[in-house]
Amino acid sequence: QALDYRAAPQFSTDEQKTPVDAVTAYNNFYEFGTGKGDPERYAGEMSVDPWSIEVEGECERPGRYALEDLLKPHEYEERIYRLRCVEAWSMVIPWVGVPLAAVLKQLAPTSRAKYVYFETLHDPKQMRGQRSLFSTIEWPYREGLRMNEAMNELSFLAVGLYGETLPNQNGAPIRLVVPWKYGFKSIKSIVRIRFMEERPKTSWEMIAPNEYGFYANVNPEVDHPRWSQKRERRLPSGVLRPNWIETIKFNGYEEQVAHLYKGMDLSRYY
Amino acid sequence: MPAITRNTLIDVFARCLVFIAALVPLVFLVKDVATGDIGPDPGQAITERLGLTAFQFLLLTLAITPLKKVTGWNGWLRYRRMLGLFVFFYASLHILAFLQLLLGWGDLWTTFTQRPYIIAGATAFLLMLPLAVTSTKAMMRRVGRGWKPLHRLIYPAAILVWVHFLWQARSDITEMVVYGLILLVLLGLRAYWFGLPTLIPLRRG
Where would you find this protein in the cell (chain B) (predicted)? Predict the structure, then answer.
């Protein structure tokens, strides 16, 4: 379904966009299986209408919100962001949505809110990956940001891509997009937002804390224990000649976000 | 005499069939690459598929002895060497794909000394190297009584390959649990029938 939006060129890259069929057919969304094609194949089993989000914790307007009510006050904009996966591939995707900060402000976080935590839908009936006996993820999928990261102008809530409603496999009906962090931070199909004083535990950190940290900023100087992060394959990649490009610190968004991490040892807080 | 000729013909025909069947995974891979069905990240997909195919052939090779024992037909043995060489073939392609398509021949030292799952896979390949080299009739004769104990290196190689996969399973290990159970049955049957010591590589007798 086509969406109404205005372009936000100040937040967009002019790099070549990854074709829509690659963006919608090559996904990590383990709720529907660990194969890259599984989400496209099985995400149709999830119903995204109606959708509501539970808001709780350190804020003045907690409660259960219908998605439309949460989005009503905002105009959609299109932002063309780079997406860098921790697995060393990347895409360029035109998202449609609203700044995360605008939505969070309307929920009126209190001064005790130091972090914001998100959860993906947990419904094994609709999500076959959650029915797997040997999954190491403790469902639901959990992510979080420090409050100043969440309020950064780049943090985005997407409801569409390529001008249309988000396909289920890309995290319909609403997902986070944090372009300077590895893709797993950009949690999909959000059903819960919680403002917290303490730093929340996040899913990949729970599974393998030595491999995935809370911050997960794109950083070519800090290798994943199993592979180098110095380069990435920009998709679609060639067969005999992979489309290698150098990975840039903070995925090229250093100017907008580097100040958030001043004085932090990023090899320790990876 | 005519009977022998006929049996020989059937044998040659059967070997050809197995050979062609063993190339089917490669044909499908080439087809998927040619049509674009391989997806937007072909390097990753090609490397993964070649590796998994090698592992599947390894399990198939290890299934020959149990098949012989269960069915009482010795004919299975005729195809074991060919299957074993296909393990080596697909494993070699897998490593070439990894070096060319994923690593780009850079970072070699770090990759092969610092990444445990790579070390497991590379060690498995090194263990299989002498087996491929000594697979001909002439080499079998030259190696003589040591041949069988040498070729038991395939057991630790198989376990290392499984570890190599398990280490990479990102969150759902169901598939590798299944492969692990198959491997356990294949090795367990040997231990049960012939005794645990017969699984130890390089041990004579």
Answer: Cell membrane; Membrane
Q: d(Cα B128, Cα A32) in Å, to the nearest integer?
A: 36
Domain assignment present for A225: no
Residue A68 parent element (H or E)? helix A67-71
ipTM: 0.85
Residue A79 lies in a domain: yes
At A19 the three-state DSSP class reads coil
Give B17 to chain A, closest Cα distance, Å: 30
Question: Are the beta carbons of A135 and B174 separated by less than 8 Å?
Answer: yes
Q: Are strands A89-99 and A156-161 parallel, antiparallel or unpaired?
A: antiparallel
Q: Count CB-CB contacts under 10 A for residue A41.
A: 14
A30/B40 touch (CB, cutoff 8 Å), yes or no: no
With bands split at pLDDT 50, 70 and 90, how would you rate the model's confidence at B105?
confident
Residue A26 belongs to domain with CATH number: 3.90.420.10
Separation in Å, CA A139 to CA A129, A170, B30: 10, 18, 38
User: pLDDT tens-digit profile of A208-221?
Assistant: 999 999 999 999 99
Cβ-Cβ pairs closer than 8 A, A with B, add up to 80
Rounded to the nearest 10 degrees, how much is the dihedral formed by the CA atoms of A120, A125, A126, A132?
A: 70
Residue in chain A lying closest to B164 (CA): A226
Of A25, A129, A244, the CB nearest to B172: A129
pLDDT tens profile B28-44: 999 999 999 999 999 99
Site from B31, B37, B44, B100 to mutate, A interface, most A CB atoms within 10 angstroms: B44
Task: Determine contact: A16 vs chain B, CB below 8 A.
Answer: no
Beta-carbon separation of A36 and B172 below 8 A: no
pLDDT digits (tens, 9 = 90+) for B149-204: 999 999 999 999 999 999 988 778 889 999 999 999 999 999 999 999 889 998 87
Write out the residue range of the structural domain in which residue A12 sits. 6-87+94-207
CA A109 – CA A116 distance, rounded (Å): 9
Q: Touching check for A239 and chain B: CB below 8 Å?
A: yes
- CB of A137 within 8 Å of a chain B CB? The answer is yes
All residues of chain B having their beta carbon less than 8 Å from the beta carbon of residue A223 are 110
Counting the structural domains of chain A, the total is 1
